[in-house]
Prior knowledge:
The chain is built from 7 helices and 6 strands. It is of the alpha+beta class. Bound molecules: iron/sulfur cluster. Iron/sulfur cluster (SF4) binds next to α3 and α7.
Amino acid sequence: MSYESEKINGTLVNYYYTCDREVWLIYHGIESDQEDDNITIGRQIENESYRRDVKQINFLNSKIDIVSKENEILTVSEVKKSSKNLIGTKMQLLYYLKILKEYGIEARGLIRVPTEKKKISVELTQDEENSLNEAIEKIKKLVHGKLPPAKIIHFCKKCAYSEFCWSDEPE
Ligand code: SF4
């Protein structure tokens, strides 16, 4: 699968499970509000937690929060500020595990929630891989189509694009 030429990355996979419009906006390089409180809080947690083993690496259009060795197994992690609604994060990690597997690298995924002192393991099973492949095909279609209309969802309240999507809306 050509990830690089399609510019598909882990962030797009993650947001696919929240909002099609956001996937489209990110893919087309439309910047979200970088001063948005939720982005700032996320960055702070990422920077201040796990100082000893924090390593960010970039590969195939993706930036992985932490890569470490735990019990001799390569582990890729994503750091979250809460354990609510982790489906996108889980699929993002599965996407990294799938790429690494295709490069012959065995790894496991870990969702770290430092504020709750939680670590959640993520493993790439055949079923997960099948649903990930389906999602990737749908993301490709989505980003090559028109900008999806804004739909009010629970996530809008915390979304860095909320001003972009809703500033012209009537009260
Ligand atoms: S504000 Fe709502 S509709 Fe707009 S990108 Fe964010 S989640 Fe999607």
